[in-house]
């Protein structure tokens, strides 16, 4: 793809060749070399450990070998299976004896107190709701009684009923207006 690029007539002037590194860059390069050496040594050590395990397994008899391999695999599975361990700790109660739990006992007691308060408030609000319903029923009864009494009073206060009650008492309804007397005229 070089033939697509247009060549400049003027080439950059300056020294060509390797760039000189600063002291910081040299130190960084040395540090990277040290880290690479440490990583190589660690890999070599891990490889040697694996080789030793293989040699140990090869030196055992086949029955011994199978038993130990099965035991090691079981142990590795148990270590990897964290949920099983947690479940066993919960069922056995071992998690309650740890230092972390003992250190958090005040917080756990606080949570229990809040939980109990929540339950108590639930019962209290249920009782309040029952009282509210009783009061509402009583109010409806009183309201119905009030309406009954008001209709009875309205019917008694009608003009025809009042006239009939006056006649039963032996009184007459006046047909003319009453006369007002002044206090000062009689003296």
Textual characterization of the structure:
This protein is an all-alpha fold. The chain folds into two domains: 24-95; 99-171. It is 72% helix and 0% strand. It has six helices and no strands. It is elongated and about 140 Å long. It starts with 22 loop residues before the first helix and ends in an 18-residue tail after the last helix. The model has no long low-confidence stretch (mean pLDDT 85).
List the helices and strands and how they pair.
Blueprint: H1 23-59, H2 62-80, H3 82-92, H4 99-103, H5 105-156, H6 159-169
Task: List the main descriptive attributes of the protein structure presented here.
single chain, 187 residues, mainly alpha, 6 helices
Describe the structure concisely.
The chain is mainly α and 187 residues long. 72% of the residues lie in helices and 0% in strands.
Overall pLDDT score: 85
What proportion strand? under 5%
Percent helix, as a range, is over 70%
Number of helices: 6
Total strands: the figure is: 0
Q: pLDDT under 50 segments (min length 5)? A: none
Largest sheet: none
Oligomer: single chain
Task: Give the radius of gyration.
Answer: 53 Å
What spatial form do the alpha-carbon principal axes imply?
Answer: elongated
Order of helices and strands: HHHHHH
């Amino acid at each position: 793809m070089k033939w697509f690029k247009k060549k400049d007539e003027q080439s950059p002037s300056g020294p060509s060749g390797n760039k000189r590194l600063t002291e910081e860059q040299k130190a960084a390069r040395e540090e990277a070399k040290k880290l690479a050496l440490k990583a190589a040594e660690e890999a070599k050590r891990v490889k040697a450990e694996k080789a030793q395990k293989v040699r140990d397994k090869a030196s055992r008899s086949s029955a011994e070998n199978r038993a130990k391999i099965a035991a090691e695999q079981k142990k590795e599975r148990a270590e990897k299976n964290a949920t099983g361990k947690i479940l066993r700790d919960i069922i056995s109660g071992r998690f309650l004896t740890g230092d972390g739990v003992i250190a958090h006992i005040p917080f756990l007691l606080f949570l229990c107190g809040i939980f109990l308060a929540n339950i108590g408030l639930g019962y209290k609000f249920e009782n309040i709701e029952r009282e509210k319903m009783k009061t509402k029923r009583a109010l409806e009864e009183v309201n119905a009684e009030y309406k009954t009494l008001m209709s009875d009073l309205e019917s008694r206060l009608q003009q025809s009923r009042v006239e009939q009650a006056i006649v039963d008492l032996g009184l007459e309804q006046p047909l003319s207006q009453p006369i007002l007397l002044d206090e000062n005229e009689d003296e």
